Amino acid sequence: MSYLVDIDHATKRFLTSAGTAHTAVQDITLQVTAGEFVAVVGPTGCGKSTTLSLVSGLEPPSEGSVRVNGQPVRGIPSGVGYMFQADAMLPWRTVLANVASGPLWQGKPKEQADALARDWVARVGLAGFEDYYMHQLSGGMRKRVALAQTLVNEPSILLMDEPFSALDVQTRALMQNELLDLWSGTSAAVIFVTHDLEEAITLADRVVVMTASPARIKDTFEVHLERPRNVEEIRMTPEFIAIYREVWSSLSDEVAIARKTGASRVA
Hints:
- By secondary structure, the chain is α/β, with parallel strands linked by helices.
- It folds into 2 domains: 184 residues, P-loop containing nucleotide triphosphate hydrolases (Rossmann fold, 3-Layer(aba) Sandwich); 69 residues.
- Helices cover 37% and strands 23% of the residues.
- The protein contains 8 helices and 10 strands.
- Strands 6-7-8-3-9-10 form a 6-stranded mixed β-sheet, with helices on both faces. A 4-stranded antiparallel β-sheet has the order 2-1-4-5, with helices on one face.
- Strand 9 and strand 10 form a beta hairpin.
- 39% of the residues are buried.
- It comes from Kribbella voronezhensis.
- GO terms for molecular function: ATP binding; ATP hydrolysis activity.
- This is NitT/TauT family transport system ATP-binding protein.
- Keywords: ATP-binding, Nucleotide-binding, Transport.
């Protein structure tokens, strides 16, 4: 089988200020295929975000290998979109200019970049806000801009690091539905890091549970819930509740270990 993302026995160590080595992730093996949505959950600071950094090329593995589209990751691979927890928009640029920046950096003419950006701004429900600046938008609207900015380049791999965690419950549900609607029209592979187990099950085809630091993959759970999904409705179903209990039985042990050891955020 051909994998878009192939992490093979990868370990990542960082040098601490004391000069000692800290192991963030240890012996991670994870494969993701085209069109698959994989959510990664684990205790705070266990190394979930470090896993995304290995795929994106922002950090090289200390051991093992990472391949994207069959090629070893040496630098930032083409076709990868990354949506961070914090906004990555430039505050002095308008909504349209922020979304158009990706196509421009790829070498597209300004007219084409602006046309692509305008289309994606409309797709995320912000038509009419093209000339607004970031400080003029609500938190939910800013996340829509970030989503458009990430998807305008039509990535084959979408890395998402707790992108909706700062939003209120209602806005978060709206953005989750928005993400599913936009992703369903693509063949992109998604790796979605979250602390919210409900969010993970609601969105994903597969939920990966990581151990307390150093992160290893403890369990993987298939989510056999029909698509398309409505995030508010699916959480009420017996199938969802059964999956939640199963995953939580695995995750809760790791959360307890992290609390006992006083794990701090390192990833």
